[in-house]
Design goal:
5-stranded antiparallel beta sheet, 2 helices, elongated, about 200 residues, 4-stranded antiparallel beta sheet, about 30% strand, alpha+beta
Length: about 200
């Protein structure tokens, strides 16, 4: 009778080998769960980063398209009073504006006593593509620049003139001349981008 009870107790327990196998399986399942969780977190971070970059790129394209389509053949005067061309490009220099022009169609929600014209510049500073906005069309101070895209490299431009010819720099015969189109190429994160914008289509 006692032998049967002892035998019954041994049958209801686990051997050391069975316990080690169970712990090993549990450890493997735990490691797999941690790996899957880490992969999901990494995937979410990569997705969020890609969506952020796509949003930046879309904002850049939309804003530049709106600006250039409203570009006007209007000259302006700098702070020294000198008359400047309606459209200019200065690719060289640490803070040079690779695009400078005056656009129309500026909204005036507050009903302020000002023109609907707006002078804007696009600059590349420390890998950031920025949009600069002047408070006044002639002279005047500049508002806080807006960073449109970060980590940009190898920016190049081409301009299409009224004869349909493309060139790497913008040269005007008259101060009021505008290019017909602009091609912008740059790299970001090792990936090349190319955008083509028409100029002045909002007033043709």
């Amino acid at each position: 009778m006692e032998q049967n009870s002892a035998f019954s107790c041994n049958r209801n327990g686990f051997t050391l080998v069975e316990m080690m196998v169970a712990l090993f399986i549990f450890a493997m399942l735990s490691m797999a769960g941690v790996f899957m969780l880490r992969s999901a977190v990494d995937s979410d971070e990569i997705t969020a980063e890609n969506l952020g970059q796509m949003a930046e790129m879309q904002r850049f394209v939309s804003l530049m398209e709106a600006d250039l389509s409203q570009a006007l053949p209007r000259t302006y005067r700098d702070e020294g009073g000198s008359q400047m061309p309606a459209f200019a490009s200065e690719p060289d220099g640490p803070e040079a504006a690779f695009l400078k022009f005056t656009r129309g169609g500026q909204s005036n929600i507050n009903g302020e006593a000002r023109s609907n014209l707006e002078r804007v510049e696009y600059r590349m500073i420390d890998g950031n593509l920025e949009r600069w906005r002047y408070r006044m069309t002639d002279g005047g101070s500049i508002d806080q620049p807006a960073v449109l895209i970060s980590q940009v490299g190898s920016l190049t431009l081409r301009f299409r003139d009224k004869r349909g010819q493309w060139s790497g720099g913008w040269r005007t015969e008259r101060l009021v001349d505008l290019p017909r189109a602009i091609e912008i190429r740059f790299e970001r994160g090792g990936r090349p981008y190319r955008h083509l914008f028409l100029v002045g289509t909002g007033y043709l």
